Amino acid sequence: MSVVGNLHxxxxxxxxxxxxxxxxxxxxISVIYTTFGISGCKNVDKVSDSLIFSYNEDAxxxxxxxxxxxxxxxxxxxxxxxxxxxxxxSALKPKPALAYRWELSPNNCVYKFFIRSDAxxxxxxxxxxxxxxxDVVFSFSRxxxxxxxxxxxxxxxxxxxxxxxxxxxALSDTVFQLTIKNPDPTMMSLLGTVYCSVVxxxxxxxxxxxxxxxxxxxxFYLKYWEEDVKLVLRKNPHYFEKINGQQLPxxxxxxxxxxxxxxxxxxxxxxxRYDFFNGVEGSFKDELLTRDGNLNTKYKGKFNALRKxxxxxxxxxxxxxxxxxxxxxPLTNVHLRxxxxxxxxxxxxxxxxxxxxxxxxxxxxxxxxxxxxxxPGLAYSQSAAIQELQLAGYPQGKGLEALSLTTTxxxxxxxxxxxxxxxxxxxxxxxxxxxxxxLRQMRNKGKLGIFRGSWxxxxxxxxxxxxxxxxxxxxxxxxxxxxxxxxxxxxxYERSFMDTGINRLKTMAFADSVLIHQAPALVLYYxxxxxxxxxxVKGLGNDATNRLLLKYVKKSNHE
Length: 559
Prior knowledge:
By secondary structure, the chain is of the alpha+beta class. The protein has 17 helices and 25 strands. The strands form 8 sheets. Strands 15, 16, 19, 20, 21, 22 and 23 form a 7-stranded mixed beta sheet that branches. A 4-stranded mixed beta sheet has the order 1-14-11-10, with no helix packed on it. The protein has a 4-stranded antiparallel beta sheet with strand order 4-5-9-8. The chain starts with a helix and ends with a strand.
């Protein structure tokens, strides 16, 4: 076993022993809780447990307004509350939702959507309000309007006429028209993302804090929300979707707890309190998984494990502004960034910190599967890293002040791994642990030199990843959190909307190769998702974007 492996084994061994003891104790306590009927998942208006789907969310929800949501945790809840004009099927292809059909003009620039007559918003005063084309105009306009400062504005940025009244039109109550300047092969898929959800014009514009009092047309509505404690959704009795004549959703309620400690939440799942658990983390991954990512023998047969390729690039972003916290920013030096990237042994990271879940990020920022090719990246080479550090003017790290890597607690083991890798080439790095919300806030303000990040594809297209480095998408109004700017990347990104077929893939591959050379981000790995699902749960699948679609879920009273 490598030195890294030995260090990692010693680091986790004592934690595994403690976890096993805690797990047995916790299961006993949970049985007592369930016996006396005070389990959190049963406290939803006395609804039968077989009709309630319960899970834990360790991240804070900042908002449930689709114009402002950013994180997967927010997206998961929003997917239950809202509908868009269209939605994406399991293969991430567009299918009808609020619009039962659509037409595209011969020049592929004008879309007409025909809205169904039986779609209603959640009743605010006991009376449902029908969804109209005017609500669609309002919803899209607030995303595209710069004054809104929506982080989703990139969806329409540069693609629509500057006059929003020309871009978005209600031709009648039931016909909505979208006009774009040039053909865009990703537009239909983007309209199927949760960011393009339709909200009620009158309520969204009049409710003071719509993000905490959301109203949509989705399969569930918000019943209760105490921040960082509990959130409860209830079945929407006016929901339009049916399968074989039966109205969706099958469930009566969704219960979300907010336990911040993933180890504790995992114990709850093993004890049967939660219906599914997403992912693993350092404190219990060796308890759960073998080195190759399979369930350990003791858990086989107790619950189902669903492992899928996941269009998520885990990375470290480098802030590229001229100054960093009122000091000259050394990270503007491309050779320093390349040195930091070359120093990381991603294969060992995947094996010892991820138990085989994921693929080493030895190519570009775009997952290779989306480009149909592997672009050679900055793969691990300590000697090459040392050479780049010399080219940067910091031989063996001399003259370079300590850098700072900001991460969250659940990625601390990875930060320690990176700190050692960089120390081996002479670069000293301090680790700064923040909450997810604080990390995002500081990142958007350019206060973090090196920050951990992840980019989950909204649609299965390379353009979605290149958007993170497009100049017009500078944060806080877009996903370019590094503030990287490069004319060749900008041109290639814009050209990708006009190219088709193999030429389009070549254009995006070229942009990704520039990103590899310029290294505004250090790609750690291309992810795989792992869902642990109780055997009593049926109909909960997964796809390449790790969506949580609960309208199709059923539960049985027994496994």
